[in-house]
Design a protein that fits this description.
Elements (H helix, E strand, L loop, with lengths): L5 E2 L11 E6 L13 E16 L7 H9 L4 E11 L5 H19 L6 E8 L6 H7 L9 H8 L8 E7 L2 E8 L12 E6 L5 H13 L5 E2 L9 E6 L13 H23 L7 E9 L2 H13 L1 H8 L6 H8 L11 E4 L2 E5 L2 E2 L4 H8 L3 E7 L5 E8 L3 H8 L4
Parallel strand pairs: 4-5, 8-10, 9-16, 11-15
Antiparallel strand pairs: 1-6, 2-3, 3-4, 3-10, 6-7, 7-8, 11-16, 12-13, 12-15, 13-14
Helix pairs in contact: 1-2, 5-6, 7-9
């Protein structure tokens, strides 16, 4: 049996057995009936579920409600919307979140306590519940509906973000949205993962936290994290295979597959950052500790100066070194080795002759790779981000107008 995780072409959140989804247009944002903005993800059986939520101290009502319900570690469905975050909306916001789960529960035939809720969009605006009440019955659940649902959760995203990974006798599927307000921790707005593997809920939560830590928590677009960030996984066991048990070879394989799915989606989020024209990948190796490697990589990829230089294809490597230097890690400037693409520009902390045209050619590409070797130890980490463009400012200057 093949144990190497393999990406399924055109796969998504409903690729695992027993998961259905659907979406509709509710006119949540500006009564716009031309776009999908409301949907439901549904498991045919109630299943173990776990999630990681925003670390922002201002949490939206959907996050607070889903956190509370996930204390039981089980769920059957998630109702979700774009166009309105339902954040900073007081008691009415919580009442609306509760009503949304009730509407979804009646629609799919389960208890409201088994339904979670997620919202994304403008903060400080209440949901148009009359439109949502009218629209929920129009959500038709199907396997194909997963692709519509991935589009329904988009805000300033330009493309839907979907993945499915096959390994052993089960599949892990997923979808994510996120283009702005992206920064560790947690560095995505919404992500929903599904699997038909049978997994204990405690191990499921542990595996999710590990996968999020090396994927979404290593993405930065603009230095902000949202009030609504949620990464959720549901495991319905409908593949019928042997259960995934902690500290087993099967658990290792599941972790590898989940990591692959999350990194795929995290890169997609970084690539589609607001106004982005390039994906930036920062690899930091030779760090004294894993924490140092992560901190340096995240500091570099978050640097507005680095992001602006990449946007302009300016081989100003000093900005990378300066960002690493202010990250607070253990560092010896005379040991640094820096590559842009596969071209060495710094060795033993000093500049080396390089072909500037070749470096600019790499920076002109859609994917920019920068590698910094600290030569202080053996720890390594990778972070992802995007360039900083004029379009980013335009999008966020006009977000609510």
């Amino acid at each position: 049996m093949k144990t190497e995780p393999v990406i399924i072409p055109s796969g998504g959140v409903t690729s695992p057995r027993g998961f259905l989804a659907g979406a509709t247009s509710a006119g949540i944002k500006n009564k716009d009936q031309s776009r999908l903005d409301l949907g439901i993800l549904f498991s045919e059986v109630t299943c173990p579920a776990a999630a990681v939520f925003t670390t922002n101290k201002v949490k939206a009502a959907p996050v607070l409600l889903s956190q509370k319900r996930l204390q039981k570690g089980r769920a059957s469905a998630v109702i979700m919307n774009s166009g309105c975050a339902n954040a900073c909306t007081g008691k009415r916001g919580m009442a609306d979140a509760l009503e949304m789960t009730g509407l979804a529960a009646r629609h799919v035939g389960v208890s409201p306590e088994e339904v979670l809720v997620a919202s994304t969009g403008v903060i400080g605006v209440t949901l148009p519940m009359e439109r949502i009440r009218a629209a929920v019955p129009n959500v038709i659940l199907s396997v194909e509906g997963g692709h519509d649902l991935a589009r329904a959760i988009m805000t300033t995203d330009t493309v839907p973000k979907e993945v499915a990974v096959r390994v052993d006798d089960y599949i892990i599927g997923g979808m994510a949205k996120g283009a702005g307000m992206i920064h560790p921790d947690l560095a995505t707005l919404l992500c929903f993962l599904t699997t038909d593997a049978a997994i204990d809920v405690d191990f499921l939560g542990q595996a999710l936290r590990k996968a999020v830590d090396i994927s979404f928590n290593m993405v930065s677009i603009d230095g902000d994290n949202s009030t609504n960030d949620t990464v959720l996984i549901m495991a319905n066991g409908m593949a019928g295979g042997k259960p995934v048990v902690q500290d087993s070879r099967r658990a290792e394989v599941f972790q590898q597959a989940l990591n692959k799915a999350c990194i795929y989606l995290a890169r997609a989020v970084a690539r589609d950052g607001e106004g982005a024209t390039k994906l930036i990948e920062i690899n930091v190796s030779g760090a004294a500790s894993a924490g140092d490697a992560r901190r340096a990589a995240r500091t570099i990829v978050s640097s507005s100066l680095v992001k602006a230089a990449v946007h302009g294809s300016d081989p100003n490597w000093g900005r990378v070194v300066a960002a690493a230097g202010r990250s607070g890690i253990e560092l010896d400037a005379e040991k640094l080795e820096l590559y842009i693409g596969d071209i060495c520009v710094v060795k033993d902390g000093a500049p080396v002759p390089f072909n500037k045209k070749e470096v600019v050619r790499h920076l002109d590409g859609k994917e920019v790779y920068i590698a910094l070797n600290l030569n202080m130890g053996s720890a390594e980490a990778t972070a992802w981000g995007c360039d900083l463009s004029e379009e980013y400012v335009k999008i966020n200057a006009e977000y609510t107008t």
